Amino acid sequence: MPKPASQPPAPSPATSSRRTPARARGHLRQKLKTAYRDAILDAAEGLLARRGFEETKMSAVAEAAGVATGTVYNYFTGQEELFEAVMERCRDKMAATLAPAMSESDPMRRLKAIVTCLFKFVDGHRELAMIRQRNAARGSTRLARHEDEEEAVDHVTKALIATVDEAQQSGALRNDIDPLLLSGSLSGLIEAHFVHWLQRGGDAPLADQASNILKIFQEGASTP
Amino acid sequence: MPKPASQPPAPSPATSSRRTPARARGHLRQKLKTAYRDAILDAAEGLLARRGFEETKMSAVAEAAGVATGTVYNYFTGQEELFEAVMERCRDKMAATLAPAMSESDPMRRLKAIVTCLFKFVDGHRELAMIRQRNAARGSTRLARHEDEEEAVDHVTKALIATVDEAQQSGALRNDIDPLLLSGSLSGLIEAHFVHWLQRGGDAPLADQASNILKIFQEGASTP
Amino acid sequence: MPKPASQPPAPSPATSSRRTPARARGHLRQKLKTAYRDAILDAAEGLLARRGFEETKMSAVAEAAGVATGTVYNYFTGQEELFEAVMERCRDKMAATLAPAMSESDPMRRLKAIVTCLFKFVDGHRELAMIRQRNAARGSTRLARHEDEEEAVDHVTKALIATVDEAQQSGALRNDIDPLLLSGSLSGLIEAHFVHWLQRGGDAPLADQASNILKIFQEGASTP
Amino acid sequence: MPKPASQPPAPSPATSSRRTPARARGHLRQKLKTAYRDAILDAAEGLLARRGFEETKMSAVAEAAGVATGTVYNYFTGQEELFEAVMERCRDKMAATLAPAMSESDPMRRLKAIVTCLFKFVDGHRELAMIRQRNAARGSTRLARHEDEEEAVDHVTKALIATVDEAQQSGALRNDIDPLLLSGSLSGLIEAHFVHWLQRGGDAPLADQASNILKIFQEGASTP
DNA sequence: CATGAATGAGGCTTCATTCAT
DNA sequence: AATGAATGAAGCCTCATTCAT
Q1: Which CATH number fits domain C84-224: 3.40.1190.20, 1.10.357.10, 2.40.37.10, 1.20.58.90?
Q2: Average pLDDT per run of 10 along chain B, which is 224 residues long?
Q3: % helix / strand / coil in chain C, to the nearest 5?
Q4: CB of A73 nearer than 7 A to strand E
């Protein structure tokens, strides 16, 4: 509706020359901008998860988002920034997902809560989860490439490390292993379950397996 | 060094184009071909490990191998086949490395032998190992991509699965977990150690940590 | 400042959409239109002088003018017409600047007056002057491009040609040289002084040098 | 002729396995490379002169040179380097053209020789000359842009400045004018003649007009 | 009309592959 | 066969222009 000629209330005479109040229009614009931005991010996220970083062309992202190629560049300066934004949003969502788990005070229970949260997240955001996994690989290779660059460790990884460390100090976990290595081991177990789940088709809910992981992690694989 | 071909005596310049009997020449040819092929594979392997799949250009491979770009295409039909050949050779070397471990009859001892062999291999072929890790990530994403394609599971992975299965049946490992998941967990632990080792700079010998892994795998991380 | 439009009294919010009688409103409209148009031209002029033709983007012009990109297209059909309009306005201003000089009847005095006017103009409108110089180069190359296109010779150039011609016929200037070439020579001298002035930083008033130019033009560079 | 099977002289048995002697082949390659490079430079030169810097697309250069787009990038890293190379070759040719004039010891005669050389050059290389002129404009605008950048003054300009300076010190040219301004004035005169010549169609030989220029420069335009 | 984001044609550049020598 | 330059398809990005609000 471009021209609602009658302005019944006309709240403020000063702005009466504008058909739509500036504030409302700005709000609309803002919403539209966010919608576009999100659509692009969503499209990129899906493609990144499905095809990987190198196979994700800007034009494909634009098409998937239902916009023109140039539009993408109105929201992101370039490919790198777009992908980075996807990763960041991914990290943010993961961090948000993790938040409730972090309030658990007992370290072992917190570990379990973390894993449960993670898997709940994966159940709801398979694509994001796949990106995260890819990026983990990317991360470790980058590490090999520029061994001195920034750490950029995942929020989740950090949480695991801290919690494992705490559990070791509280005597709940064995003390004869570098906490970094131990938390890495837990990460490896988590990823193994994730991969296993993917290979199974990703149908069954993953969250149920959190206790499985911790069972293995805590008790080991030997016959009890 | 693509040209180790020794030129025997070369009796007379006039007949030099037919110095060698046909059979011997064929043999020489064969050797030369193999030498070229290997040089190219070696170069590709190094670059793949160092720069990754997407950053490894055919011209760079050629240069690193000391041949012309076109030559690469005399030995491989294209980039994909070349990289595939590198991966295959990598898998073969891994399989060969694994062979002695497989002769161990007791499954638990065999598991430890496998891990030890793996880490010995990594100590000696860091580049190959890095490729393998990269490819693992690649593999799992590919899996997602063409979920119905070839299995292409690693020899090592197969060995682990079979051995874990055997150990479960012999009662050495807990029976309440899918053998695929259990062996995947072991793989995850192995990779976690590998990554940890990479992050530490990859200096210390990795083989020493085989027992560490199995300790965690068997006993778990809880305080004994 | 595209909006100098003073809003008279604005008697009642309810009738605010019809504050002004139609004729007055038309007048206002006209003024507003001109104000916008001028703002855009001014912005374009500044950017053209500063960044050059190829580096001057429509969006930058709009921003500098304080309007939206699309608005520019309400006043000019496109980039070419806008730039052409800038050039035309530039030519017009030059012509206006030149007017007083043209009333001088003696050709030699008129030449000096023209040069003086030119330099006064440059002193006051450095940007326009720079555009004019740029366009001179552009012009001569365009000439080469579509050798048959419009003449589009500058008003100043025309004035110089006519005056030089007159001076030749009056015997004040040598007759053995094509008047076009002779006036071109004077133009060249003028431009040389302008460039020299630019390279010196463009600080000192340029108008003082008018007599220098005419000295060289009339007497030549040899020791008197 | 790819396979001249008979190698009559066979100078050195060691290289007999190569059909074509390495040196000869290298020579051929070198020649071909130079031919390509020159073809590209020539094409770029023509387009730069005809269409200008901003209108000269890489693909057009390639097409004009009769090569594929990518080929251009085998010889120049990018557009900037290509254009720079054209300009450099242009400068070099100009410098070479100027060389004989510089051996003249008397400054006034040298000035005339320089102008004559310049015009001879223009007669033979109209395109290069046009590029030079464009670049002069470009140069002076660049100057305005980054007023502090490198000087990058033309060899010709330098020669003129030095010679004019010398002529002033020898008393042949008036001393009451900044030598830079005086040589600039001469440059302006030269360019004016060049432009005039272009506008006349560039048919008549330009070199004949060298004396005209110096006449004006030395004696001025007033009736003698 | 003003707005300013969407559009998409078009430019520059890269690199896997081919091919004449 | 080896060579290495030529090729051109394809990707990223810019920016003049359009158009819904």
Answers
A1: 1.10.357.10
A2: 42 48 71 91 94 93 97 97 93 88 94 92 82 62 43 78 96 93 93 86 81 92 85
A3: 70, 0, 25
A4: yes
CATH architecture of A79-224: Orthogonal Bundle (1.10)
CATH topology of domain A26-76: Arc Repressor Mutant, subunit A (1.10.10)
Q: Which residues of B touch D10 (CB under 8 A)?
A: 13-14
* Chain F bases having any atom below 7 Å from a protein CB: 1-21
Lookup: tokens for B197: 């080792």
CATH top-level class of C20-76: mainly alpha
pTM greater than 0.90 (yes/no): no
Q: Are D143 and C193 in contact (CB under 8 A)?
A: no
Looking at domain D83-224, which CATH architecture does it have?
Answer: Orthogonal Bundle (1.10)
Residue identified by tokens 């809560």 is A113
Question: In chain A, pLDDT over 70 holds for what percent of residues?
Answer: 79
Q: What is the CATH number of domain B21-76?
A: 1.10.10.60
Domain parsing of chain D, residue ranges: 23-76, 83-224
The one-character DSSP state at C222 is: B
CB contact under 8 A, D223 and C187: no
D23-76 to CATH, choices 3.40.50.300, 3.20.20.190, 1.10.10.60, 1.10.3720.10? 1.10.10.60
Residue D85 scores a pLDDT above 70? yes
Sequential pLDDT tens for chain A (224 residues):
444 444 444 444 444 444 455 555 667 778 888 999 999 999 999 999 888 889 999 999 999 999 999 999 999 999 999 999 999 998 888 889 899 999 999 999 999 999 999 998 888 888 877 777 666 655 554 444 444 444 456 788 889 999 999 999 999 999 999 999 999 999 999 988 988 888 887 778 888 888 889 999 999 988 87
Which positions 66-85 on chain D have a beta carbon less than 7 angstroms from any atom of strand F?
67-71, 73-75
Cβ–Cβ under 8 Å, residues A133 and B140: yes
